[in-house]
Write a structure and sequence with these properties.
The protein has 621 residues and is of the alpha+beta class. The chain has ten helices and 35 strands. An eight-stranded mixed β-sheet has the order 28-29-31-30-32-33-34-35, with helices on both faces. Strands 4-5-6-7 form a four-stranded antiparallel β-sheet, with no helix packed on it. Strands 8-9-10-11 form a four-stranded antiparallel β-sheet, with no helix packed on it.
């Protein structure tokens, strides 16, 4: 069928997108089953635990979600007998639930918990107490019999203070522990220490941005670090709580085994009992490799190639979860000896007739090369009129963080646009992870400049190549991505419209209300206060809202504690004063990110209608 771009009939309806957007949250071998965490959009984003038998392990209304460091992670684990340990989303206490039983609390009310780790029958967690000043965080060991639920003194503290902690790991003989630790004036990808303790003494290893310690023997620990500019695996011999000699890098190539430590619980590698290591290597996209003891490696042919987590191992079997450029997000079980790959959950193959494969794009920017993924309009039942020489409209996506990255994964959320005749360009601007420390640090001191220059360069590169209509390019992003959206609109001249989801608009306001984890984040991205106060004002989109001259759609969660509604409402008021076409939507019950089906559906419907008005097409119903 011949019809203009943007008007194509699509099976990817907003309600289908909402139903197809569950988030996979870890997986584990449990007896003869495989369990995994999965969000349920239809239940407000409640996170349950499911089994490969088809059973739902964690029933409603319980939801496993942590609020430690605000972004949480590591909210559940299980033992071999099928006992589930989880952090309840409501009270943030750790609970134990025997299979088929009733959850009982293991920790007292008050503090939040996350990053659960069960080793040798011992349960560890990261604890965060925001009820005291200054706020306190710790790594604790929790008795699994429930005795500490009303007696905090029975909780064993491994380490406690004002610093931040992650990735507790117990040595095989149980005599020593290791963890990652960083101070509040740095983000963990800037500087994080690996600490080893035997209960009486502690040693901080010489690391730059350590991640995920794992004991491979009582006298040997493996971890990831990036002293050479890429997160790579290192092996360190230890004696007591002391390092012996220097660390040995296990493998060296132009890729990262690691990511920004936004959430607790992610695993980028797992040692096998025979000395091999299964690891994720990221250079834009992910690949999973098996590293032999001699340092040689071979790739596992696996569909998962985006934000892959190596969740669990059992013998030669490995559980991995993540995204894929050819399937839906899922959980895979891989036998590294036979090469057999089994899709356990999700991972349904996508139809390339409807789901366009992402093309890796590299354009020259004023600060260096800019990486992106392009998805062209794709619909087997529709095409634009040949005689019109019409170029398609595009929407440029800007990820949040800003220290994060996109991977070119197949996504029904992308197909929502491309199947209607709207192309998508997903940009990894300078500051993104996945391309090494130098690319990541390109944004240092340059937030609001480098990211804006890069998304503009990517959009113009697409138009210059004759792939997009230069008069019909919109930009859309959330959180830090919303900041880049609005900053790009202030710059003007490239984008015909902007969509900001819970975007940052005022740096001083963000700094004043920032939570602990990100309290000093902006200092690295812009500059320290009060010295850089003038720069905070000059960089903020709110300061220059009068320069925005294209339509803007603003969407915000009413319960957002990271970027409160006051930010979106401030730019709304400024746009109203300037007489700029805009729409503002506040979603009750939603926080920093939209999780409920109703909100996801409404937001997509509004975005599509908004682009139709701006670009002059009537979307098919």
């Amino acid at each position: 069928m011949s019809s203009p771009f943007g008007t194509w009939t699509s099976p990817f309806t907003p309600d289908r997108i909402a139903a197809s957007s569950p988030r996979i949250d870890g997986s584990a071998f449990v007896a003869d089953e495989i369990w995994w965490g999965e969000s349920i959009p239809a239940e407000g984003g409640r996170l349950t635990v499911r089994s490969s038998t088809g059973a739902e392990i964690l029933p409603a209304p319980w939801s496993a979600r942590s609020r430690v460091h605000e972004y949480g992670g590591g909210a559940w684990t299980a033992d071999a007998d099928g006992t589930l340990y989880f952090v309840d989303a409501e009270d943030q206490r750790v609970h134990r639930m025997p299979r088929g039983g009733v959850p009982v609390p293991l920790t007292p009310p008050g503090p939040a918990h996350g990053g659960l780790r069960l080793q040798s029958g011992r349960l560890f967690a990261v604890r965060e107490d925001l009820s005291v000043s200054p706020h306190r965080r710790a790594i604790i060991e929790i008795p699994t019999d429930g005795s500490a639920s009303d007696r905090p003194a029975l909780l064993k503290t491994l380490v406690e203070g004002e610093s931040f902690y992650a990735h507790p790991a117990l040595s095989p003989d149980g005599s020593r522990a290791a963890w990652v630790e960083w101070s509040g004036d740095r983000m963990p990808w800037q500087r994080a220490s690996l600490v080893i303790s035997d209960g009486t003494a502690r040693t901080e290893l010489s690391t730059r941005a350590a991640l995920q310690p794992e004991w491979t023997a009582d006298d040997e620990i493996v971890y990831s670090d990036d002293p050479s500019g890429r997160w790579a695996l290192h092996r360190q011999r230890v004696s007591g709580a002391q390092a012996v000699g220097t660390a040995e890098q296990i493998i060296d190539d132009d890729a990262d085994t690691g990511y920004g430590l936004w959430v607790l619980g992610n695993r980028w590698y797992r040692p096998l009992a025979d000395g091999r290591v299964v690891a994720v290597r990221t250079n834009g996209r992910d690949r999973v490799v098996v590293i032999d003891p001699d340092g040689s490696a071979h790739r596992i042919p696996l569909p998962a190639d985006g934000h892959v987590s190596v969740d669990d191992v059992a013998g030669s079997r490995v559980l991995l979860s993540g995204n894929s450029s050819t399937t839906e997000p899922g959980v895979w079980c891989v036998d590294v000896d036979t090469g057999r790959v089994e899709a356990v959950a999700g991972a349904a193959p996508t139809d390339p007739a409807w789901m366009p494969p992402a093309s890796e794009v590299l354009v020259d920017g004023s600060h260096g090369p800019v990486h992106a993924f392009a998805y062209p309009p794709t619909n087997p039942s529709a095409h634009a009129p040949a005689a019109d020489d019409e170029l398609p409209p595009y929407i440029v996506l800007v990820h949040g963080g800003p220290t994060a990255h996109v991977t070119g994964a197949a996504s029904a959320a992308v197909a929502f646009w491309t199947s209607r005749g709207i192309g998508v360009l997903d940009v990894n601007y300078g500051g993104s992870t996945g391309y090494g420390r130098a690319y990541r640090e390109r944004l240092d001191g340059g937030w609001g400049v480098v990211d804006v220059d890069d998304v503009i360069a990517a959009a113009r590169g697409l138009a210059d190549a004759g792939l997009a209509d230069p008069a019909r390019i919109a930009i859309r992003g959330g959180s830090a991505g919303g900041w880049t959206v609005l900053s790009s609109l202030v710059r003007g001249g490239t984008f015909a419209a902007g969509i900001s989801r819970y975007g940052v608009v005022d740096l001083q306001m963000l700094s004043a209300h920032s939570h602990d984890f990100e309290a000093h984040y902006i200092e690295g991205l812009v500059g320290p206060l009060p010295e850089a106060e003038a720069l905070y004002v000059a960089r903020s989109p709110l300061t220059h809202a009068d320069r925005i001259d294209v339509p803007v759609l603003l969407m915000q969660g009413a319960d957002d504690r990271v970027v409160p509604p006051a930010q979106s409402e401030a730019i709304r008021d400024a746009l109203a004063t300037s007489g700029v076409e805009h729409e503002y939507v506040l979603y009750p019950g939603q926080g920093h990110g939209f999780r409920s089906s109703e909100t996801i559906i409404d937001a997509l419907e509004r975005e599509l209608a908004f682009l139709g008005r701006v670009f002059g097409f009537t979307p098919a119903r």
